[in-house]
Write a structure and sequence with these properties.
six-stranded mixed beta sheet; five-stranded parallel beta sheet; 31% helix; FAD/NAD(P)-binding domain
Length: 443
C-alpha cells in the first residue's frame, strides 16, 4: 500500500482521489457507515435536510464552485450563511420585539460596519492572548454610542463567534475572524450536500465501519491499527476532526512532536448545532432570508433562516453555538423545540403553530466528531492551523478543515487541505481541475 487515508470526509476523499488518479494504491478507513464526515444529508422526510455542512461560503475563487457545476448539483442562492448584518432582506426586531423600519435597519448595518472598522484598528496591536470579547469592548468604547446602540452590536459580535466559531467570545482569539471574508454569493443545496462526497468517493477503496485506534511510524513507513486489523503503507493522512485528536482517540507512536501536538492542544473545537422546524403554514414575512432578534432579547435564540426553498415546505432553521450549543445537547427534543417556539412567539405571538416535524443536531457529543469545527482560541493563532498539518517524519500527514489556516471551518478549506497533503506525498503540484473526472453527475 502506498497511502492510507484515515477519514472519508471531504479532505480524505479529495486526497485519496488525487493520489489514486496519480497511480497510487490507496485505502480509506472510515469509522462511520457512510462517507462525508461532517457533511450529512438526512432524506428520511422525502426531502433533504443537511444536518452538517450546508453552504458554499463564497462562490468566487472557490474550488467547490467548479466541482458542483461538474456534478450538476442544484444550488439555491442564500447569502447570509456567514452571519452578515445585512446584504440580503432580513426582518430585524429591536429589544421590544418591534420590527425595525427601513431607515433603522439601514442604520443598524452602518453601525456594524463602523464598529467593524474600529475593531480592525483596535486589534492591530493585539497579541494571541486577547479575546474577541475584550477587543470588541475596546472597539465599542471608541464609538461613544449610548448603551442600547452599543449593546446591539455587542450581542451581534457574541452571536458571530457562536456561529462562526461555535464558541463564546471570551474563548475566541481577537484575531480569530481575520480570515472571515466571503467572495461572491453563498449557496445551499436542495438536493443535499452529500452528493459531493459520495460522487468523489466513487471508484475508491473505502472501508466503512473501520475505526482507527493507533498510528505507528517507523523508518519504513507507517502501521495503522483498527479494531479489525492493521494496515501498512509508506504514508498516512489523518483527517479525523480536531475534537477527536484533542480527545486522544488515536494513539500515535512515537508521540507527536510539539510542532503538531502544540497546535492540536491550542486550537479550539467549537460546537454549533442546528434546529430545523417544519411548520404546517408560513407565519413569517415573504421575501426575507432571515428573522433576527437584536440586543439583550437575542438570548438564547437570535436568528431564524427561511430554508423553505430547500424542502418545499414552510421551514425555519435556527442555530445554537458555543455554551448554548453544548447545553441543548443535554436537553430532550421537546425541550429544545419548546424553547425555540417560546422565542418565536415573543415576536409573532399566536401566529406560531406547533411544528409538524423537527431535526436537531448534537455534534458535540458525536464520538466521531466531538464538535462541529475548529477555531482560533485565545492563546493560538492562524499559523497553528497550518502547522498542525505536519508532515511528521515525512510519513505522517494531517488534513481537514482544522489544518487550513486561510479558511478553517469550511468545506473548501478541508478540500484545499486534502489537495495539499496529496501534493506533499507526490512531491509535485497537482491540478484540481480533474478532481471530478470520471464521476457520475447524476448521483
Amino acid at each position: 500500500m502506498d497511502t492510507i487515508v484515515v477519514g472519508a470526509g471531504i479532505a480524505g476523499i479529495t486526497a485519496a482521489r488525487l493520489l489514486h488518479a496519480a497511480g497510487q494504491r490507496v485505502v480509506v478507513l472510515e469509522a462511520r457507515d457512510r462517507v462525508g464526515g461532517r457533511i450529512r444529508t438526512d432524506r428520511t422526510a422525502g426531502f433533504c435536510v443537511d444536518r452538517g455542512a450546508s453552504w458554499i461560503h463564497g462562490l468566487t475563487g472557490n474550488p467547490l464552485t467548479g466541482l458542483v457545476a461538474a456534478l450538476a448539483m442544484e444550488t439555491h442562492e442564500f447569502t447570509v450563511g456567514s452571519f452578515q448584518a445585512g446584504g440580503r432582506p432580513i426582518a430585524d426586531y429591536d429589544e421590544s420585539r418591534r420590527l425595525l423600519d427601513d431607515q433603522a435597519a439601514r442604520q443598524w448595518t452602518v453601525d456594524v460596519d463602523t464598529a467593524d472598522d474600529l475593531f480592525q484598528t483596535t486589534i492591530a496591536d493585539s497579541g494571541h492572548d486577547e479575546s474577541y470579547a475584550a477587543a470588541a469592548e475596546r472597539a465599542l468604547a471608541r464609538t461613544g454610542w449610548e448603551p442600547e446602540r452599543a449593546e446591539r452590536v455587542r450581542a451581534f459580535y457574541r452571536h458571530r463567534t457562536e456561529e462562526q466559531c461555535g464558541a463564546e467570545a471570551e474563548e475566541v482569539a481577537a484575531h480569530a475572524l481575520d480570515e472571515d471574508a466571503i467572495e461572491g454569493d453563498e449557496v445551499i443545496f436542495p438536493g443535499g450536500y452529500d452528493v459531493l462526497p459520495r460522487a468523489l468517493a466513487e471508484g475508491l477503496d473505502v472501508r466503512l465501519g473501520t475505526t482507527v485506534t493507533a498510528v505507528t511510524r517507523s523508518a519504513t513507513g507507517v502501521r495503522v491499527d483498527t479494531q479489525d486489523g492493521s494496515f501498512e503503507a509508506a504514508h498516512v493522512i489523518v483527517t479525523v476532526p480536531l475534537g477527536v485528536l484533542k480527545a486522544g482517540a488515536i494513539e500515535f507512536t512515537p508521540a507527536l512532536p510539539d510542532s503538531v501536538a502544540g497546535p492540536i492542544a491550542r486550537l479550539g473545537m467549537g460546537v454549533f448545532n442546528k434546529v430545523f422546524l417544519q411548520f404546517p403554514d408560513r407565519f413569517w414575512q415573504d421575501g426575507i432570508y432571515a428573522i433576527r432578534q437584536h440586543g439583550q432579547a437575542s438570548v438564547p435564540w437570535h436568528s431564524w433562516y427561511d430554508v423553505s426553498a430547500v424542502s418545499g415546505k414552510p421551514m425555519l432553521l435556527t442555530f445554537a453555538g458555543g455554551a448554548w450549543g453544548r447545553e441543548i445537547e443535554q436537553k430532550t427534543d421537546e425541550e429544545v423545540v419548546s424553547s425555540v417556539l417560546h422565542s418565536l412567539r415573543k415576536i409573532y405571538g399566536d401566529l406560531v403553530p406547533r411544528p409538524v416535524a423537527h431535526w436537531i443536531t448534537r455534534w458535540g457529543i458525536d464520538p466521531l466528531a466531538l464538535g462541529s469545527y475548529s477555531y482560533v482560541a485565545v492563546g493560538s493563532s492562524h499559523a497553528d492551523h497550518d502547522a498542525m498539518a505536519g508532515p511528521v517524519d515525512g510519513v505522517l500527514h494531517f488534513a481537514g478543515e482544522a489544518t487550513w489556516g486561510r479558511e478553517p471551518s469550511t468545506v473548501h478549506g478541508a478540500l484545499h487541505s486534502g489537495h495539499r497533503a496529496a501534493e506533499r506525498i507526490l512531491g509535485s503540484p497537482i491540478s484540481l481541475a480533474g478532481l471530478a473526472q470520471g464521476v457520475n453527475p447524476s448521483r
